[in-house]
Amino acid sequence: MFETLSDRLTSVFSSLRSKGRLSDADIDATTREIRIALLEADVALPVVKAFVAQVKERARGAEVSQALNPAQQVVKIVNDELIGILGGETRRLRFAKTPPTIIMLAGLQGAGKTTLAGKLARWLREQGHAPMLVAADLQRPNAVQQLEVVGERAEVAVYAPEPGNGVGDPIGVARGSIDEARRLQHDIVIIDTAGRLGIDQEMMRQAADIRDAVSPDEVLFVVDAMIGQDAVTTAQAFMEGVGFDGVVLTKLDGDARGGAALSVRHITGRPIMFASTGEKLEDFDAFHPDRMASRILDMGDILTLIEQAQKTFDEEQAAKMAGKLTSGENFTLEDFLEQMQMVQKMGPIKNLLGMMPGMGQMRDQINSIDDRDLDRIAAIIRSMTPGERQDPKIINGSRRARIAAGSGVTVSAVNNLVTRFFEAQKMMKRMAGGMGIPGMPGGSGGRGKGGKSKKGKKGRRVSGDPRKAALGKPAADTPAEPKQGGGALGNLGGKLPPGVELPPGFDPSKLRLPGQK
Question: Is 28 assigned to a binding site?
Answer without folding.
Answer: no
